[in-house]
Amino acid sequence: MFMQADLVVKSVMIGLIFASVITWTVWLAKSIELGAARRRVRAALRKLTDANSIGEAVNLVDAKRGAVPAMLRAAVAETRASWDVADKYAIKERVSARLDRIELAAGRDINRGTGVLATIGSTAPFVGLFGTVWGIMNSFIGISEAQTTNLAIVAPGIAEALLATAFGLVAAIPAVMIYNHFARAIGGYKALVGDASVAVLCLLSRDFDRGVRPELRAAE
Question: What Cα–Cα distance (Å) separates residue 62 from each residue in 40, 69, 70, 72?
């Protein structure tokens, strides 16, 4: 049916096959990326829970990549720059602002690439429907040229047209399901990053209440 289809219908089918390949490629790549990111955050969060100060957390979380090491570096940098300020609450606010920016950046990074799934899921059925309408239109033109409504003449063209709709659904349904799965998984990842941010702020507040700054010695 594909080989006998009209050029436009063939183009629609090829485009939908390409969209399906993109969907499964994004699924594989994003699953690996998201799984690795969640493992890093969980491991760092356990270390933050075990730590008793920012300095100890810096020593325990020795990774270079990930949102949690970036949060620790931001807390250390801001504390170093503002330690001579008398109002330690103002330092906490500035650290909190920097941690919020890191959270947002982590969310944007992990969310990158999933938008194409929403696009494919929402447009693929209509692209397939366009191919179907075009194919059925050609079938009716063939009927007028053949001067007959014999089913044997009409059926192949209609079947080829309906195949385009099937291709559209095959491309759209997995894209929508995978997008929804990633939306839930990314939401869980963002919650983990938020927990890490709270843990860093708690360690920082504990150090301030003690009146010591071991995080500076750990950073140096």
Answer: 11, 7, 11, 10
